[in-house]
Every structure is written in C-alpha cells, then in structure tokens.
TrEMBL record:
One of its GO terms (biological process) is nitrile biosynthetic process. The keyword 4Fe-4S does not apply. InterPro entries: Kelch-typ_b-propeller. GO terms for molecular function: enzyme regulator activity. Keywords: Iron, Kelch repeat, Repeat. This is Nitrile-specifier protein 5. The keyword Membrane does not apply. Transmembrane segments: none annotated. It comes from Phoenix dactylifera (Date palm).
C-alpha cells in the first residue's frame, strides 16, 4: 500500500518558548508540553514547562511546583496517560544527567523518581519511547562515550529494568530513532562517529535482539531525526545526513524526507508529500517531536530544531500520514 503524507503548519498565539533545538515535546490530550533545549549551542535556555493548546494554538507556561528539573539540553520526554516523564540530558556545565522526573498534568506537580545510582547511567541525546506501562530508554552520549543499552521504567512497579545488550552488531550511538510498536522495541539508525542505517528490534518477551535486513526505498544513513510509532509503522522525518566538521557547534546537512518502516514486512517506503506550499517544515534535525492526535487524526508533531544555516527554529508542524 502506497502511503502519502500531508504537513500543516500551525499558527501560534501567546508567548511561546521561542526558537530552540535539542529540546523535547510530548502530547497529553489536546495539549503539547515542551521542555528544555538550547538557542545558543550547548547552553540550556530555561526550565519552564511550556504548554501548547492544540485546539486554539495558544502557548502558556505551566504553574509547576515540586521537584522542578534544572535547565538541560539533549533530553527526552514521553507521556503515559496524563503523566509526562523526562529523562537525562546535559546541564550548563556539559555534565551528563540521569534523573527521571514525572509531571502530573492534572496537578502541575513535578516529582523526582530516580537519580544517580538508580537506573540507567548518565546520558544525553538518547531516545525514549513508551507503551501503556513502560518507558524505554536507549543509547545516547554517556560519560565515557556513546551507549547502546536498553532500559525500561515500569510506572506501576516504580522500578528500572535493564535489558540484555544488543551485542556488537548494534554500535553505540547518539540520536537514534526509538519506537514501541507491535509489542517490540525498534532502534532505527543514529550516529556512531558516522551516520548509521541499521534497524534493530528487541522483543521484551523472548529477551532477544534481532538485526533486520530491511528492503524497499531505504533512507540514507542519518541521526537526530523525528520519529513516531503509528500503527505497525515507524515514521521518520528529516535528520542529519552529513555531520558538521564543527560537531555540535555547527549545522550539518539535513534531510526533509519522510519514510515509513513497515514492522511486519521490514520494508521501507518513502512517503509522497501532498503538503500545500509553505506548509512543509523543510530540512532540519535536532527537533522536538511526538506522536499525537489533531482533529481526530493520528500523526507526528514537529517543533523547532536546527536548520542548514545553523539557525534555531520556532515553528510547529503536524504530519498526517495516510495509514
């Protein structure tokens, strides 16, 4: 089945977070919550929890209390039910972090759930996905280099689980795609010193890793792209396809392409783009992104990120794929 996609650029009212990259966003109901990020490379902007109403397109700031996380970049965020979770990142002194925080969107209370010796080692530019009960953390940049470990936090038992190592075929990496779909955890691409184009799958029941030989219209190697698990598909957009020789201080070459991986057939498909003029986000990476629904349709939200000119962006787009 051929899949197409349509982007829509969303209007923004009120005072929003402004341009930034290396931040995170997640959706609860009809609201998107954004946290963290940088405007100047490696300098965290703030620690406000910004809230975007997907119905009236108005920004506000949550009147948050409790264990409010300090500013950070390279974080991840996911939601289960009405609770948001953020993990890790890097602080103003470029120190890797490993705290897990929750934010109750009903009470506006932050809670520190774990830190230091509990849970995964410190990291930034890792990936997070969630199902109905668990948060999954994979890879990223740690204190001693890039990582390829997979962890889960069980929100019912309130404990961390470390899964078996994927082995040498799965290189340690930053900026990978991660999706929980079909009862399995999918690790897609990433950066290991070079851009990667491999796909690995972990089955939590059998505790086994599989390296898949994917087929179809395969994306070129890339990292720091936007990812969403929608149905049986892993959707990816954009990302860095050629790193900058300045590292994180510069802008590499970015993609504007959309692809879908069918996790049942292991076939990639490039999505035909039926967006109207001016509605497409264009080439970018290091975005905040989340799956979510708008007007009853499931899709991918993309907010901000870095551009080919190394300018941080502040726009919001929603992709609706024809699944």
């Amino acid at each position: 089945m051929a899949i197409d996609g349509r982007w829509v650029k969303l209007a923004q009212k009120g005072t929003g977070p402004g341009a930034r990259s290396s931040h995170a966003i997640t959706v609860v109901g009809h609201k998107a919550y954004a946290f963290g990020g940088e405007f100047t490379p490696r300098v965290p902007v703030d620690n406000k929890l910004h809230v975007f109403d997907l119905e009236d397109h108005t920004w506000s700031v949550a009147d948050a209390v409790g264990d409010i996380p300090p500013p950070r970049v390279g974080i991840t965020m996911a939601a289960i039910g009405t609770t948001i979770y953020i993990f890790g990142g890097r602080d103003l002194e470029h120190k890797e972090l490993n705290e897990l925080y929750s934010f109750d969107t009903c009470t506006d209370v932050w809670t520190l759930l774990s830190s230091d010796e509990a849970g995964p080692p410190h990291r930034s530019y890792h990936s997070m996905a969630a199902d109905e009960r668990r948060l999954y953390i994979f890879g990223g940049c740690g204190n001693a280099g890039r990582l390829n470990d997979l962890w889960a936090y069980d929100i019912i038992d309130r404990r961390w689980i470390q899964f078996p190592s994927p082995g040498e075929s799965c290189h340690p990496r930053g900026g990978p795609g991660l999706a929980a779909t079909g009862g399995k955890i999918w690790v897609v691409y990433g950066f290991s010193g070079v851009e990667l184009d491999d796909v690995h799958c972990f089955d939590p029941i059998s505790q086994k890793w599989t390296l898949f030989d994917t087929t179809g219209d395969k994306p070129s190697p890339r990292s720091v792209f936007s990812t969403a698990g929608i149905g049986k598909y892993v959707i990816i957009y954009g990302g860095e396809i050629d790193p900058s020789d300045q590292g994180h201080l510069g802008a590499g070459k970015f993609s504007a392409e959309l692809f879908a991986l069918d996790t049942e057939t292991n076939a990639w498909q490039k999505l035909k783009d039926f967006s109207d003029a001016g509605e497409h986000p264009g080439p970018r990476g290091w975005c905040a992104f989340s799956s979510g629904k708008m007007e009853g349709k499931e899709g991918l939200f993309v907010y901000g990120g870095n551009s080919p000119t190394n300018d941080r962006l502040d726009d919001i787009f929603f992709l609706t794929p024809s699944l």
